[in-house]
C-alpha cells in the first residue's frame, strides 16, 4: 500500500513516534522507558517500522526529576527524545503538544500513558491496522478486571451518558491510539482550547480500526486521577462535546413549570371551594426544590458561557519551553 512514508524516506516503512505524557513520573519512567525502547527496536528490526522512529516524552511541567530523567535518557539512546511544557497543563494538552510536534516529521503516532498500564505489545497490531489502510486505530481495553466495581460502574455510566448526549466515544478506549500524520494535519485545524481527545478524534473521521488489549496495574507511582479529578474530567468532557445538558434543563424547566401551573389552578379551585390551603412546609419545600433546579441550570449554562469566554481568548493550548534535541532557544506555542 502506498503510504506517505515512501515519500518521506523511500523505504515504504512508516516512521513511528510514540507520544508519552509524563507528569511527576520519576518512579515509573526508569521502569517503562526501556520497555518502550525495546518495543520500538523489535518493531524496526522486524521491518514493520522505520528505524528513524522515536519515543517522544512530553514533560507536563513535572515538579520532580522527570525532565532530568528524560534528558538523561535522550543522551543514552537516540530513539529517546523529549519536550517540556513550560508548566503543568494537564494530560490532554500534553498529548496534544506531543502530537503537534510529531505531525510533520513522522507518518504515524501512538499516544500512550507512561505508567505501563497499557499493553505495549498492542502497538504491533496498531501498525498492522495502519498498513491495512486505517488512519486511526483505537486501543480498547478488552477487560476491566483490574478495576474496582465502582470504577467499572462509573466508567460505563460515563460512556453511556456521553453517547446519549450525542458525543461519539469509543467504549473502553482512553488515550492509547494510533493516528496517521494525515489525521493529525486535519486535527491541527480543531482550535478549541478545551480539548477532550477521545471525543474529538472520531469527529475528524477517516477509516478507523480497533485493537483490543489488556490493561494492567500501574508499574510504579500512583494515579493522578482521584475521584474528584475524574468527575471534573467527566463534566468537562460532556460540556466540551455536547450542548444537550442545556436542552435537558430546558425540558426539566418546562415540566416543573407545568406542574407549578397545575398546582396554582388546584390552589385557586380549593380556595374558591372555601377550603384554605394548609401547610407552609410543603410550600417551602417546593420553593427550595425549584430554587435548586434554577441554580443548577444557571450553573450549567454558566459553564458553557465560561467555555465560550475561554475559547474567545484564543490562548495557546501548550507552550514548549525545552526540547532535548535543540539547545534552549525560543520555542513555539500552539
Ligand atoms: N499526566 C500528565 N499531566 C497531568 C496528569 C497526568 O501528563 O496533569 C500523564 C501521566 O504522567 C500519565 C498519564 O497522563 O502518563 C495518565 O495519568 P495517570 O496514570 O495518573 O491516570 P490514570 O491511568 O489513573 O487514569
Ligand atoms: Mg495510569
From TrEMBL:
A GO term for molecular function: glycosyltransferase activity
Xref: InterPro entries: Glyco_trans_2-like, Glycosyltransferase_2, Nucleotide-diphossugar_trans
Keyword annotations from UniProtKB, A to Z: Glycosyltransferase, Membrane, Transferase, Transmembrane, Transmembrane helix
GO cellular component terms, semicolon-separated: plasma membrane
Coarse class of the protein's main subcellular location: membrane
One Pfam entry name: Glycos_transf_2
Residues passing through the membrane, by range: 248-274, 280-305
Compartments where found: Membrane
Membrane topology qualifier: Multi-pass membrane protein
Domain Glycosyltransferase 2-like: 18-184
Domain of life the protein comes from: Bacteria
The protein's name: Glycosyltransferase
Amino acid at each position: 500500500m502506498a503510504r506517505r512514508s515512501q515519500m518521506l524516506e523511500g523505504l515504504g516503512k512508516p516512521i513511528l513516534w510514540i507520544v508519552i505524557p509524563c507528569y511527576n513520573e520519576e518512579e515509573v519512567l526508569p521502569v517503562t522507558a526501556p520497555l518502550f525502547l525495546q518495543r520500538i527496536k523489535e518493531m524496526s528490526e522486524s521491518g514493520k517500522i522505520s528505524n528513524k522512529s522515536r519515543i517522544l516524552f512530553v514533560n507536563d511541567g513535572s515538579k520532580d526529576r522527570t525532565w532530568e530523567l528524560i534528558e538523561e535518557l535522550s543522551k543514552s539512546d537516540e530513539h529517546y527524545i523529549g519536550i517540556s511544557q513550560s508548566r503543568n497543563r494537564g494530560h490532554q494538552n500534553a498529548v496534544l503538544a506531543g502530537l503537534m510536534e510529531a505531525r510533520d516529521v513522522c507518518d504515524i503516532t501512538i499516544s500512550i500513558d507512561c505508567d505501563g498500564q497499557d499493553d505495549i505489545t498492542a502497538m504491533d497490531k496498531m501498525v498492522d491496522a495502519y498498513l491495512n489502510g486505517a488512519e486511526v486505530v483505537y486501543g480498547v481495553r478488552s477487560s476491566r478486571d483490574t478495576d474496582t466495581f465502582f470504577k467499572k460502574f462509573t466508567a460505563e455510566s460515563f460512556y453511556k451518558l456521553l453517547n446519549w448526549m450525542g458525543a461519539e466515544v469509543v467504549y473502553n478506549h482512553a488515550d492509547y491510539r494510533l493516528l496517521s500524520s494525515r489525521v493529525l494535519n486535519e486535527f491541527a485545524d480543531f482550535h478549541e482550547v478545551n480539548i477532550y481527545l477521545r471525543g474529538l478524534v472520531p469527529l475528524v473521521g477517516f477509516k478507523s480500526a480497533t485493537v483490543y488489549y489488556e490493561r494492567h496495574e500501574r508499574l510504579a507511582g500512583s494515579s493522578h486521577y482521584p475521584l474528584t479529578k475524574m468527575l471534573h474530567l467527566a463534566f468537562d468532557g460532556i460540556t466540551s462535546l455536547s450542548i444537550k445538558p442545556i436542552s435537558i434543563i430546558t425540558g426539566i424547566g418546562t415540566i416543573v413549570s407545568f406542574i407549578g401551573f397545575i398546582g396554582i389552578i388546584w390552589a385557586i379551585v380549593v380556595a374558591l371551594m372555601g377550603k384554605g390551603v394548609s401547610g407552609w412546609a410543603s410550600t417551602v419545600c417546593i420553593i427550595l426544590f425549584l430554587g435548586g433546579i434554577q441554580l443548577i441550570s444557571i450553573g450549567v449554562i454558566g459553564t458553557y458561557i465560561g467555555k465560550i469566554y475561554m475559547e474567545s481568548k484564543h490562548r495557546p493550548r501548550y507552550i514548549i519551553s525545552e526540547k532535548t534535541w535543540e539547545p534552549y532557544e525560543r520555542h513555539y506555542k500552539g
